[in-house]
Every structure is written in structure tokens, then in C-alpha cells.
């Protein structure tokens, strides 16, 4: 799926809202994650998927950001939570499903995500156009509590 560039009009987005998804390979253990998605209105093309999970082995929350193909991977992404300074993350890999950036979340970032109204993710297209996507954080705290 290639990144769609905007013509004269700026693209509009739909946000699914934070939810908890769980899977299980072992019926005694659930692997749960908090997920939010942003899609382009009208086409349902996935633009950004944010996934937060707490792996059983490390107990440290991780963030995985999935982006569409067709972005400038060398530029990485910038994520801004609330009014905090932006943080940059490298694109780690791309597959047929899209491009991925990830990190272990600090307690400070989790606290900011729990208390802020929104976060913004910015990335560049191959044509050097920057796309900034805003995700509301309402519902994140409740989902994160369910993960713990």
C-alpha cells in the first residue's frame, strides 16, 4: 500500500479510538495490547497504527508505530505527546504490511500519554511532504490499565 499524497485539499482522517486486543497461544496466558488506528477518510487506507504492549518477559511497555509504504524511511518519525518536546524514532523495518518504528516507553512518556489530550506523529513522503497525524489519547489510560 503506497502513501497517498494530498492534492489541493488536505486529507481527512478517521481515528478508531483506543481499544485492547488480546490473543493467546496458550489458553492460560493472554497477550494484550492497546491499539489505535488512523485511516484516510473515504479510502480506509491505514495511515498510522499505534500499539502499546507490556511483554511478559521484560514488563517494560513498548510502542510500535506502523506507517504506510512510500515514506522516506531515512527521515524516521517524530512523535510529540501533549506539549512535551518531540522525540525522533528511526524506521526499523518495512514489510508488505508497512514500515515500523518502535521503542521501549519510559515511565515519563507513559505518564504523558495517560494525562495528555493528544499525540502527534509526523513522517515524510518520498516527495518530501510532511504528514502529521493527531491521535486523541482519551481512552488510552483505561486501556493501559487493562494491560497491567
How would the blueprint of this fold be written?
Blueprint: E1 13-15, E2 19-26, E3 29-40, E4 46-53, E5 62-67, E6 77-81, E7 87-89, E8 93-95, E9 98-104, H1 107-115, E10 118-124, E11 130-136, H2 140-147
Antiparallel strand pairs: 1-3, 2-3, 3-4, 4-5, 5-9, 6-7, 6-10, 8-9, 10-11
Please provide a written account of the structure:
The longest helix is centred in the C-terminal third of the chain and has 9 residues. By secondary structure, the chain is mostly beta strands. The chain contains two helices and eleven strands. It starts with 12 loop residues before the first strand and ends with a helix. It has one domain: Invasion associated locus B (IalB) protein (Immunoglobulin-like), CATH 2.60.40. Strands 1, 2, 3, 4, 5, 8 and 9 form a seven-stranded antiparallel sheet that branches. A four-stranded antiparallel sheet has the order 7-6-10-11. Helix content is 11%, strand content 47%. Strand 2 and strand 3 form a beta hairpin.
Mean pLDDT: 90
Bulk shape? globular
Query: How many DSSP H or I helices?
Result: 2
Largest sheet: 7 strands, antiparallel
Rg to the nearest angstrom?
15 Å
Helix and strand sequence: EEEEEEEEEHEEH
Question: Uncertain spans, ≥5 residues at pLDDT below 50?
Answer: 1-8
Specify the CATH class. Mainly Beta
Q: Give me the count of strands.
A: 11
Q: Classify the helix fraction into a percent range.
A: 10-25%
Brief summary of the model shown:
The protein has helices at residues 107-115, 140-147, and strands spanning 13-15, 19-26, 29-40, 46-53, 62-67, 77-81, 87-89, 93-95, 98-104, 118-124, 130-136. With 148 residues, the protein is mostly beta strands. The chain is globular.
